[in-house]
């Protein structure tokens, strides 16, 4: 019966629930005192978590970030003149809700790429579609899109991250 259930869960593309059910069967003791509804909630939570993780991974992959960066790893030393409040506000992604883009400027070597990738990564974790461009590639993409008539379609995606 259980093998059939696991097969059906996988056929229905509920692999998170299948994994959680297998775990519940292998580790019986922690789940013995739980009601059917509580165990079902655990299965659903696992499925939901797995899908969220897959979505975040896909959004991060599609963003084409140059480097893997995190807001929590940003260096706020005096030389860089970054303000934690400003970065924290950017990481909240309110600017995306206002349909704005982010353009990061500064001197060579000051960490523009890292900052743009970190804020973009934070946006992906909030389920926003993001695309990282260096300015030269953005201008090239805009020129090509305008030339081939795909300009309106190419840039309908919400939020573009540029560094």
Word description of this protein:
- With 163 residues, the chain is mostly helical.
- It folds into two domains: 2-62, no CATH class; 65-162, Rossmann fold (3-Layer(aba) Sandwich).
- It contains eight helices and three strands.
- It has helices at residues 2-11, 15-26, 36-63, 84-91, 94-97, 112-125, 135-148, 151-154; strands at residues 102-103, 131-133, 160-162.
- Helix 1 packs antiparallel against helix 2 and helix 3 runs antiparallel to helix 6 (112-125).
- The N and C termini lie far apart (55 Å).
- The model has no long low-confidence stretch (mean pLDDT 87).
Major beta sheet summary:
3 strands, parallel
Q: Percent range for helical residues?
A: 55-70%
Structural class: mainly alpha
Rg (C-alpha, Å): 22 Å
Intertermini distance: 55 Å
Mean pLDDT over the residues:
87
The general outline is elongated
- CATH-defined architecture of the largest domain: 3-Layer(aba) Sandwich
Number of individual domains: 2
Properties at a glance:
163 residues; 58% helix; three-stranded parallel beta sheet; 2 domains; 3 strands; mainly alpha; single chain; Rossmann fold
Explain the layout of strands and helices:
Layout: H1 2-11, H2 15-26, H3 36-63, H4 84-91, H5 94-97, E1 102-103, H6 112-125, E2 131-133, H7 135-148, H8 151-154, E3 160-162
Parallel strand pairs: 1-3, 2-3
Short recap of the structure:
It contains 8 helices and 3 strands; from the N terminus they run H-H-H-H-H-E-H-E-H-H-E. The chain is mainly alpha-helical.
């Amino acid at each position: 019966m259980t093998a059939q259930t696991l097969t059906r869960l996988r056929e229905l593309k509920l692999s998170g629930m299948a994994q959680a059910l297998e775990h519940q069967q292998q580790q019986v003791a922690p789940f013995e005192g739980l009601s059917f509804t509580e165990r079902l909630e655990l299965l659903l939570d696992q499925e939901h978590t797995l899908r969220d993780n897959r979505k975040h991974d896909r959004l991060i992959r599609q963003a084409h970030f140059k480097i893997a960066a995190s807001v929590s790893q940003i260096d706020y030393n005096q030389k860089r003149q970054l303000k934690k409040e400003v970065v924290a506000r950017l990481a909240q992604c309110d600017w995306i809700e206002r349909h704005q883009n982010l353009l990061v400027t500064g001197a060579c070597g000051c960490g523009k790429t890292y900052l743009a990738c970190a804020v973009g990564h934070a946006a992906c974790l909030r389920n926003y579609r993001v695309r990282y461009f260096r300015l030269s590639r953005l201008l090239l993409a805009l020129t090509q899109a305008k030339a081939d008539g795909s300009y309106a379609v190419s840039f309908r995606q919400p939020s573009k991250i540029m560094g």
